[in-house]
Amino acid sequence: MGCLEGVHVMITSGPMRGYIDAVRYISNTSTGKLGTMIATELLKSGACVTFIYGAGSSIPDSTFLDNDCARRLMLIEIETIDDLVNTIQGKLKDNSFDVIVHAMAVLDYTPEARSQGKIPSSKDKLVVTFVKTPKVIKLIRRLWPHAFFIGFKLEAGLSRDALIERTYASLIENGADLVVANNQDEIAGNKHQAYLVNSQKNIESCCETKQDIAKALVTVLSKYPKLGKAE
Predict the structure, then answer these.
(1) Fewer C-beta neighbours within 10 Å, C or N terminus of the chain?
(2) CA 215 to chain centre
(3) CATH of 8-223, one of 3.40.50.150, 1.20.1070.10, 3.40.50.10300, 3.30.450.40
(4) Over the stretch 88-115, which tens digit does the pLDDT of each residue have?
(5) Looking at the predicted structure, is the pLDDT value of residue 1 above 60?
(6) Cα–Cα dist 152/123, whole Å
(7) Which of 194, 213, 93, 107 has its CA nearest to residue 147?
(8) Which bin fits 165, alpha (ψ -120 to 50), beta or left (φ > 0)?
(9) If 0-12 CB within 10 Å is exposed, 13-18 middle and 19+ buried, where does residue 90 land?
(10) 8 Å CB contact between 34 and 51
(11) Under a CB-based contact definition with an 8 Å cutoff, are residues 37 and 214 in contact?
(12) Cα atoms in the 13 Å half-sphere on the side-chain side of 215
């Protein structure tokens, strides 16, 4: 087995939906590909993975996993912020996790009310009021205070130094152990520039692709005294 044999990991990944009416919703551009690659690398390293993903998201492909890896993977699909909160507070709250990887692109705002049925398209304008969503990252940290917590910080148009500063502020605010920092304008195709920032404000790793990020996270976790069996 790999260096993380027996380690229990919860991963949140992919987009989220905020419904306007029965057929319309707002979402974001997350594909879930990064979360999927992280899950796959963790499974290959022996970890047990609970994978919470947004509707339409990429998920680990069982056809590329051996039977043992597939057995250690639990998939949970959600759509909305309420689904995510209910899953965490209800279905999973009594589960013990050694590691949390919170990679899901949680909506910061969602429609205040969901209209019944479909809103007629005859109107020239449609005004939708949005309200701020709960900070799920704080909820997760509160429920699993002793887990090694990995957060993600996505910004746009920042310099490297500004990105690291903002990422470190997020790490402190949310009680994370490590945060993956990335700029939207440095993500395209196979390219995914990212920095792994730790609690000492040091950069653990500089990554160029999603695969780099996934492998770097496994390396960091394997060296953590309470988790890994460094190879």
Answers:
(1) C
(2) 16
(3) 3.40.50.10300
(4) 999 999 999 999 999 999 999 999 999 9
(5) no
(6) 39
(7) 93
(8) alpha
(9) exposed
(10) no
(11) yes
(12) 7
Burial of 210 (0-12, 13-18, 19+ CB in 10 A): buried
pLDDT digits (tens, 9 = 90+) for 36-56: 999 999 999 999 999 999 999
**CA–CA distance, 153 with 10 (Å, rounded to integer):** 18
pLDDT above 80 for 9: yes
Distance CA(152)–CA(176), nearest Å, equals: 10
The confidence band for 228, taking pLDDT boundaries of 50, 70 and 90, is low
Residues 6+ apart with CB under 8 A from 17: 25, 26, 27, 54, 55, 79, 80, 107
Cα 10 off chain centre by: 9
Alpha-carbon distance 13 to 18, whole Å?
16
